[in-house]
Each structure stands twice: as structure tokens, then as C-alpha cells.
Design a protein that fits this description.
Helices cover 57% and strands 9% of the residues. The protein is of the alpha+beta class and 544 residues long. The structure holds protoporphyrin IX containing FE (HEM). This is Cytochrome P450.
Amino acid sequence: MVSVPGRPSLGDAEAPSSSPWKAAAPLCAAAVLAVVVAWCAARAAEWAWLRPRRLGRALRAQGLRGTAYRPLAGDAPLADRLAREARARPPLPPGFHTVVPRAMPLFHHAMAEHGKTSITWLGPTPRVSVSEPELVRQVLSNKFGHFHKPGFGQLQRLLHYGVSSHEGDKWARHRRIIKPAFHLDKLKRMLPAFAASCADMVSRWEGLLVAAAADDGAAPCEVDVWPEMQRLTGDVISRAAFGSSYLQGRRIFELQEEQVRLAMLIANKIHIPGYIMLPTRTNRRMKWIAAEIEGILRGMIAKREGALREGEATSDDLLGLLLESNMEHSSGGGMSTDDVIGECKLFYFAGMETTSVLLTWTILLLCMHPDWQDRARDEVLRAVGAAGTLDYDGLSRLRIVTMVLYEVLRLYSPLPSVHRRTYKPMELGGVRYPAGVLLMLPLLCIHHDKGVWGPDADEFRPERFADGVARASGGDAPPAFFAFGGGPRTCVGQSFALLEAKMGLAMILRSFAFELSPSYSHAPFPAPLLRPEHGAQVILRKLP
Ligand code: HEM
């Protein structure tokens, strides 16, 4: 650049005009940042504090009352005391199953104090628990589209994202495509897969008994049936979902098991917005597993779709049936590959732990009620013999086993509660709810309600199901049995679960006798399914 002495150079001339901008730039950036921070803080305050308070005020104005368990508001001692009392309860008197105060102490307390529709605060957000069966039925039927499932966080999306998370048209489309895969005719064809998994378990237990006998000459041995049932139902769903690709299915199952363990580790931090995005070791591992599972499923789906296009018959497994149904619906808008992956992941989550919880409590209750164990075993031996094949006809003859399973589902409902959020302002049971209220339907409490089930509601009495579910709660009232939910979103896999449970129980009953081990301690704990907190130790004996 040429500069003439005494005159400012071009560079000098430019300098004064650009310098105010240069000086202002950091100020502008700081101002923008301050606005963004203030906006985020206002949004966070609105969602985390102001909005819940407004909802609480609106509910109280409607006459609803409740109990708050807000540690910061000095309510912690009450919550602590209830939780302590629930855990320190003495052993149950034989025949009685007072599960609710132990498994849901806070809601039990709120309902005892404030009635069947009451509010509970676990933090600033009010939850309304509704336990009048007629109102629960109205919420689940969702006739006017007033209710949605509560929002699903990023963690849940990582674990599974299928029909249970969708709403509106997307939910209806997925449900239409999935439903045929669970049709009874299709389930009948999956029975050999169920039988193979049960036979593996029985021979494993026989091996344990042989080893125990070799050790000290005494034949019985102790088994914790909780992990055993998890293994069984994981195996069943791997075979039923992926047929010949069963080994890949098992790999998915193992990966998902690890994912659930990791999810439990971070469960108490997940309400922090964006927490799952942080590059912590657990988060990175979670994402790696999600990508690995997706990779395996994508490969399987591509192979099966290719075979379908070539006109090859699908196999009788859930994935094959799902793809077949998807192809039939493709003209009216089928599911994308990502959707199919989401549904496959959901089958594990929805189907595995629920059924293992049911089978575990069934074995424990049959230990506590040996007369029913004998009656159920006699029935199995009469219906199918000690070594006969357990086919669909044989399983449908098992009346006592079915009654036992329903009674266990009532007393120890695997899903103790389900949730809904009001989507629009609406009225329910004479109370006007604004949009955005979280409703908790405590299925377990309803199943133990003496006003509904009679004074023996806490007793194990399978004979109440002798005339079917519809008449079990007595009188002409519609059934107050919600173990599989209700309305259009009722469990799509309930026939699958019941067939699997009948098969598993029948195979165990005809090979083994069982009683509670002295090391067992009774502690139903919702985490979030109702599992035995300290395991389910039983003493097994091989039947002659
Ligand atoms: C004892 C076993 C089971 C119990 C107690 C159970 C319970 C339930 C309940 C209560 C719901 C309704 C949730 C709500 O309304 O928010 C549900 C939904 C669902 N269940 Fe099950 N379930 C069991 C087994 C299974 C199995 C074996 C499968 C599949 C393999 C399955 C798949 C599903 C699916 C996909 C949904 C969502 C349905 C929808 O939103 O449209 N479940 N289950």
C-alpha cells in the first residue's frame, strides 16, 4: 500500500470505520447470549415450576386434595417414614397379600387420606391418581381422544420407540400392522419355539438337581427363579421374534439387558434436559449398544424383505409376520425400516420382563399355597401327562392353571400403574381437568380394592376366576381387572403372554415340586415392574 506523507493511507481511512464494529461485536454476542440464557431460564421456570403450580391451583379449585412429598418443602420425613414402614413390614400372614402399602406406599397413603381421586406431588408436578374402576375405564377407552400417553424422553427413544409411544394416526397404523402377528392362529404356530425354551430350562434345572445330589447326597436344591424366568422369557421372545435367526435375537436380548442396566444407573439424572447428549461413559455405551442393535436388526430385515420380494414364504416368527403384514398394508402407508426396528426392540421390552414377573410371582404364590400347586399339577398331568406334548389344545384345557395366572395378575400386577396426560380440557367424574394434567391409574390398588373385590381382596383365591374374568369381581358390574390395560391400547401381546406362561408353568409343574426357601424374603418392589426385590429363592425337588 502506498502512503502519502500527511495524508491518511487507505488502510488508515478504513480503520476508524471498522473499529466500532469490532468493539461492538463482543457486546452484541454477550447481549444475544444473555437473551438466549434468559429465554431458556424463563422456559425452564415455566415448565418446571410455574406451569405445575398453575395446574395444582386449578386442580385444588376443583376440590381435589392430596399430599406433597417435596423434599425442599420439608415433606421428606413423611416420604421417608412411609418408605421405611413399607420395607420393614413383618412377614405376611399366610394367605394374605397386602401388596399395595408395600409396593406403592405414597399413593396408598394419599388415597387413604384423600379418597379415590387424589393428588400426589413428587416434586412440583401434581399427579392425579384415579382409582375408581368406572373412571379408569373411561380414561383407557379414550372415546373422545382426550388423553395421550405422557411424553417419552430421549432415554426411552434410545431403548425402544414403537407402537406404545405413538399417538393418533401413527399409532393406529402401527397397531393395525402389528395386530395380525399376535393373532391366535399365528401364536399356535409359535408354540414349538415356546416349548423349546421351556425344555431347555427344565433340563438345566434337572442338571442342577443332579449336581446337588452328587455334592451332598440330598436331592433338593435352591434356585432363584427370578433370573431363571428372565432368561426363559428372553429366550422365548428371541425364538418367537426371530425364528431361524434366533442366535442374533439372543445377542440383541443380551445387549438390551445391558442397556436396561445402564438406564437404571442414569435414571435419576435423566430429567436434566439434554443429559443423554453428554459424552459420559455410560451415555456413550448406551448409544453404541443402540447402534449395534439397530445394525443387527437392519441386516435381518433387509434379508427377510429380499426373500419376501422373491416370493419366498415368510417364517412363522414375529418379524416375518410383521414384514408380511407391512407389505400387505404398503399401499395404505406401511411402516419404514426404522419403524420396524422400533417395534422389534419394543417386543423385547414389552414382552420379556412382564411375563417373567408373572411367572416368578406365580411360582412364589404356589409355594405359599401348596394346595393350589397340587391342584394345578394334577390338572396338567391329567390334561397332557408327564411326558406328552403340550400343544394348543392341551394348554386350552388347563382351567385351574388359567385361574391361578389371573389371580396372580390381579394380586401382583406386573405393571402396577399406567399413566395418561389430558390433551384437552375435559371433565371426568365431575372434575374439570385442564390440558396437561398427569393422571396415574394405579392398577394394583384397584385390584386390591375391597369395595370392588370383596373383603377377601387381599387373599389368594383363584376360584374367583372360575367363571372367567368378566364375572370375577362379582355382581353385574363390568370387570375391574386391568392387568393388561384396557380400551384401544390394551396389551397387544396378552394372548402371547398367557400362552407362554401356561406352557412354562405346565412344564415346571409336571417335572418339579417347589417350596419357599428359608432365604426368601417377601418384598414386591416396583422398579418400574413389580419385581421381587431380594430375588425369588425356592427349593426344587424332582418329581418321580
Ligand atoms: C404378563 C405379561 C404382560 C402384561 C401384564 C402386560 C401389560 C400391558 C399393559 C398394562 C399395557 C397397557 C399400557 C398402557 O395402557 O399404557 C400393555 C401394552 C402393550 N403390551 Fe403388554 N403386557 C404383557 C405382555 C406383553 C407381551 C408378551 C408383548 C409382546 C410381545 C406385549 C406388548 C405390548 C405392546 C406392544 C403394548 C402397547 C400397545 C399400544 O400402546 O397400543 N405385552 N401391556
